[in-house]
Amino acid sequence: MKHIALNGLGRIGRLAVRRLGAGAPECLCAVNDPAPLDQVVHLLRRDSVHGPSALPIEGQTESGQDYLILGERRVPLYHALDPALIPFPDETRLVVEASGRFTHRADAARHLKAGVSHVVISAPSPDADLTVIAPVNGAELDLARHRVISNASCTAHATAPMLKILEDAFGLDQAGMSTVHVVTNDQRLLDLPHKDRRRSRAAFQSIIPTTSSAFGALHRVMPTLPTGFGGAAIRVPSLSVNLVDLVATLRRDVDVASLRAAFESAARGPWKGLVALAEPHTVSCDITGRTESVVMDLDLTMTLGKRFVKVFGWHDNETGYAARLCDLVMDLVGRI
Ligand SMILES: NC(=O)c1ccc[n+]([C@@H]2O[C@H](COP(=O)([O-])OP(=O)(O)OC[C@H]3O[C@@H](n4cnc5c(N)ncnc54)[C@H](O)[C@@H]3O)[C@@H](O)[C@H]2O)c1
Which residue range or ranges hold the Glyceraldehyde 3-phosphate dehydrogenase NAD(P) binding domain (predicted)? Predict the structure, then answer.
């Protein structure tokens, strides 16, 4: 049995624990977070966005060692701050780095010790061995060469299919994107210093324009993207579900019907399960808890010129991303 350990039990780490705990509990061998056991257990059991855990979750301390009891499975919980100092069990083969603290290769690679052969970072990384959005470039994964792997970002996973479907159906000339993005723990509840001065402002008071690491990840995963492809994140005072607003100029004339048909056929065919279609009149809370990478809102599709188009796609930045993270990790752990 090949085993997975998880570092960082925040929004994404806890959803990954819930998902692995329910779907593949035998694979999860250890977790690490500086927070005390009782606080970790409390937040694993209850979630302000996603509700109570379906899986019974308890905490236990035995001979000074903390454990999470996830259903039938007992998993040690460590509290180290430095990846190199986490005493993950010998059977650990893959570490999911979900703390948000170690996104550079050299930092994440501190997990590579004893039997750990691979690390998956739950975020864009400037210098990971490979950035993967599995349905787009998963075939490039070479487990002998790629040891520290970035799973890109939630926004990148939502935007990549939108770009790829347009590219495959009509050819892509230029593109730009804004993500209307909910608050994350990298913002401030009230005004407090932050290196990004806009993120230093009270998150639930303002619309906060900021950067998105999705663009770098998308250029790494899709090297043929138009070089100017870029945009911004517009952070809004909401808890979950983002809306990607993508504009593009295409290489062929299109109308709204042909645009919609391309996304409908992709959602039924090669992208089934990852791309879905929204119900009419959707608003963000309708998408909470969805696990697809993107849910296209085809009613909002527009042509702004014969070849100039605008398309919109929703995604649950937490459950959608945690699902893609667990897909990748389960695929890798089956192969290493
Ligand atoms: N929240 C999202 O929507 C989202 C989506 C996709 C990717 N991501 C990425 O996933 C990563 C985690 O994001 P999040 O929103 O879950 O973060 P979070 O702030 O909710 O949680 C971070 C967790 O890491 C723990 N931690 C802090 N220092 C640590 C250390 N030294 N070692 C181990 N754990 C430590 C914290 O106690 C906390 O539990 C980030 O890189 C983020 O960009 C987040």
Answer: 2-154
Is the CB of residue 317 below 6 angstroms from any atom belonging to ligand 1? yes
Q: Is 27 a catalytic residue?
A: no
Euclidean distance between CA atoms 165 and 147, whole angstroms: 30
Q: What is the CATH number of domain 154-317?
A: 3.30.360.10
Q: Is 85 in the pocket of ligand 1 (CB under 6 A)?
A: no
Residue of the nearest CA to atom 43 in ligand 1? 123
* Domain residue extents for the chain: 3-122, 154-317
Task: Tell me, using a 6 A CB cutoff, whether residue 35 lines ligand 1.
Answer: yes
CATH ID of 3-122, from 2.40.50.100, 3.30.390.50, 3.40.50.720, 1.10.10.10: 3.40.50.720
Find the catalytic residue in 27, 29, 154, 326.
154
Per-residue pLDDT of the chain (336 residues; tens, 9 = 90+): 669 999 999 999 999 999 999 999 999 999 999 999 999 999 999 999 999 999 999 999 999 999 999 999 999 999 999 999 999 999 999 999 999 999 999 999 999 999 999 999 999 999 999 999 999 999 999 999 999 999 999 999 999 999 999 999 999 999 999 999 999 999 999 999 999 999 999 999 999 999 999 999 999 999 999 999 999 999 999 999 999 999 999 999 999 999 999 999 999 999 999 999 999 999 999 999 999 999 999 999 999 999 999 999 999 999 999 999 999 999 999 999
Conformational region of residue 193, where left means phi above 0, alpha means psi within -120 to 50, and beta covers everything else: beta
Distance CA 25, CA 70 (A): 8
| CB distance 316 to ligand 1 below 6 Å | no
CA–CA distance, 79 with 70 (Å, rounded to integer):
18
Ligand 1 center to 226 CA (angstroms): 31
